[in-house]
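quick q for whoever's on today - can somebody do inverse folding on this one?? i tried earlier but teh output was garbage lol. tokens:
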């Protein structure tokens, strides 16, 4: 590749940008930018300051992204170089250095987080990673349901921030091991690189910290600076940022600062980025920069291995027939499997009974009865087929007959609204449709329900059968 190729590419992008914004804005915000290099699909540019970069991200990211994709293709990425950056070496103004002893005695902290200011001569303060020592790769059972996430996590642990998997976005239903996998990566990073500052924090705690920082004078800067020192940041349940614009804005800037510094970000959510609502588009676009992996319910074989590993860890070797029986009857998620096993062990201990197949059957009867109220994709599919008097084979087929197509769309719509499954998981239950097909079906059903009273009655009738009073 010629040395001047990056200049040509950026020049083509500027031509597109210039046609879409006022000339004065172009001179102010784009003329000072210098193209530095082009490495594959990543274009590096130099901007005058970190404030300059943040303003571009705030006001022009969509336009820049479209220009890059038009010139370089959908894989295009942009890397900033800050001419004068305050992120990598933050120094306190003179007035903030006063009463340093008191600041260290009562620093800004939420849930024992301590802000490591870059003060010359100050020894780095140790930060509690808040990782659960039980959530290791050794305790994580790999299967087809989580293989991609496990493999990506192992690669990240060896080279945090240095793989294409940044951010790593882990999503899936409750109890499928998202938190375990995310923390296992963090623990492995700490073991291989002890100096790497790893921090696990739930979205709820992050939100609380942000609100506390906003309500106390001069604490918001401390809050932002603290997070910019993290080498590996793990945010759990990031979907809880929905409809919280202030928190999203703070996290947006923290995300940018860490990503630009090639620090590792690991995020978990109950849905894929494309399915999240209440989050700003600029944030969602960043969630898609790295790798998104879905954790699915474990297969029968994986369920058996999870139960075996868990029981052995507790010092008990269960007979194969009991493991097989439990794995056959508890099909929901890892949390339910572990909960059932704990209940079985506790019941045997308290009642002083031997762990037998009969005891397992009696326990399962209670658990399955309690779980029968949960709506599954199978029940949605079967109820819809019975309502329209069509077969399951017809429903999942490729036929476009109106009555079959609409029934299929209703199943997808109800699957999205009545279960916690991702769009991809719902599509997999309906003949292997992709998430885009499911999203289109949901939008179609919503539109028809607003304009067609008979169609709305169909949907309401099926839903009422699924949710009896």
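ok took a stab at it. sequence:
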């Amino acid at each position: 590749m010629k040395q001047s190729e990056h200049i040509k590419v950026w020049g083509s992008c500027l031509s597109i940008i210039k046609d879409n914004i006022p000339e004065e804005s172009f001179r102010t915000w784009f003329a000072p930018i210098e193209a530095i290099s082009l490495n594959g699909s990543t274009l590096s540019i130099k901007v005058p300051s970190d404030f300059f970069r943040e303003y571009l991200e705030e006001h022009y990211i969509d336009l820049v992204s479209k220009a890059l994709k038009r010139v370089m293709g959908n894989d295009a990425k942009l890397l900033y170089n800050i001419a004068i950056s305050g992120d990598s070496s933050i120094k306190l103004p003179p007035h903030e250095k006063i009463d340093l002893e008191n600041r260290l005695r009562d620093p800004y902290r939420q849930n024992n987080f301590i802000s490591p200011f870059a003060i010359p001569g100050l020894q780095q303060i140790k930060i509690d990673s808040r990782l659960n020592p039980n959530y290791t790769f050794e305790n994580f059972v790999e299967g087809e349901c989580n293989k991609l996430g496990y493999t990506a996590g192992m690669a990240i642990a060896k080279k945090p921030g240095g793989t294409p998997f940044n951010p790593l976005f882990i999503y899936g239903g409750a109890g499928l091991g998202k938190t375990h996998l995310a923390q296992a990566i963090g623990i492995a990073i700490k073991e291989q690189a002890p100096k790497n500052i790893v921090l696990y924090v739930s979205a709820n705690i992050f939100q609380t910290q942000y609100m506390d920082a906003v309500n106390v004078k001069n604490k918001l800067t401390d809050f932002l600076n603290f997070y910019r020192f993290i080498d590996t940041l793990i945010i759990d349940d990031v979907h809880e940022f929905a409809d919280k614009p202030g928190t999203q804005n703070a996290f947006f800037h923290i995300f940018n600062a860490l990503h630009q510094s090639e620090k590792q970000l690991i995020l978990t959510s109950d849905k894929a980025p494309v399915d999240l609502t209440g989050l700003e588009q600029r944030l969602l676009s960043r969630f898609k920069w790295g790798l998104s992996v879905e954790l699915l319910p474990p297969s029968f074989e994986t369920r058996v291995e999870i139960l075996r590993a868990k029981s052995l860890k507790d010092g008990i070797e269960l007979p194969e027939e009991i493991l097989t029986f439990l794995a056959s009857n508890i099909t929901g998620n890892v949390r339910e499997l572990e909960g059932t096993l704990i209940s079985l062990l506790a019941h045997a201990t308290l009642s002083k009974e031997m762990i037998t197949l009969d005891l397992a059957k009696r326990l399962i009867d209670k658990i399955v009865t309690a779980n029968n109220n949960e709506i599954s994709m199978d029940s949605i599919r079967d109820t819809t087929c019975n309502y329209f008097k069509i077969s399951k084979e017809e429903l999942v087929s490729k036929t476009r007959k109106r009555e079959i197509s609409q029934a299929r769309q209703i199943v997808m719509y109800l699957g999205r609204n009545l279960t916690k499954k991702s769009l991809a998981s719902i599509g997999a239950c309906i003949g292997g449709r992709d998430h885009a097909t499911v999203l289109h079906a949901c939008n179609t059903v919503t539109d028809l329900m607003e304009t067609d009273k008979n169609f709305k009655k169909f949907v309401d009738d099926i839903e009422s059968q699924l949710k009896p009073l």
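fwiw DSSP finds 20 helices and eight strands in the chain. also The radius of gyration is 26 Å. so keep that in mind when u check it
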